[in-house]
Amino acid sequence: MLLPVLFTLGLLSCTERGRSARPGSVDWFRAMPDERPQMLNADVPFRYPVSLYERKIQGNVLLRLFVTSDGLVVPDSTRIIEPSGHPELDQAALAGVSRLRFRAARLRGTPIPVSLIFPVHFRHPEGPKLPGDSL
Q1: pLDDT for 65-122, tens place per residue?
Q2: In sequence order, which residues have a C-beta less than 8 Å from that of residue 86 and are 6 or more positions away?
Q3: Which residues contact 34 (CB under 8 A, 6 or more apart)?
Q4: Where is each TonB C-terminal domain found (predicted)?
Q5: 12-121 has which fold?
Q6: 60: part of which helix (H) or strand (E)?
Q7: What is the spatial distance between Cα 102 and Cα 72, in angstroms, rounded to a whole number?
Q8: Where exactly are the structural domains of the chain?
Q9: In angstroms, rounded to a whole number, what is the distance separating the alpha carbons of residues 97 and 41?
Q10: What does the pLDDT look like over 40-65, one tens digit per residue?
């Protein structure tokens, strides 16, 4: 059952500004992209667990993602940096990662792999605001 949910998604590049990075070099992966990756999904691929939605339980999950130069997420390397405090929300965030699609980050016009910090905010429309909410 898919439920209407309010998600706030954001991207923060975690790469470092490199020296004159060359494709294929170690510094290439660490170089700050000229263009950050852009999420291409028309619909948010994360599913709010029904049992938590019905009880208006909300939470934030902070993930580290690795996005290839093809714009695909490497699901096996995705990690939870900060759990929500609700294992079902954490698992829902991890489950949605495999369906994420991106326009790859670019450095001087060339697609590059990057590491991202990716927050997933599970919000119920009738739930209370959580610390840090601005909507």
Answers
A1: 999 999 999 988 899 999 999 999 999 999 999 899 999 999 999 999 999 999 999 9
A2: 52, 57, 59
A3: 106, 107, 108, 109
A4: 33-131
A5: TolA/TonB C-terminal domain (3.30.2420)
A6: strand 59-67
A7: 6
A8: 12-121
A9: 11
A10: 999 989 999 999 999 999 999 999 99
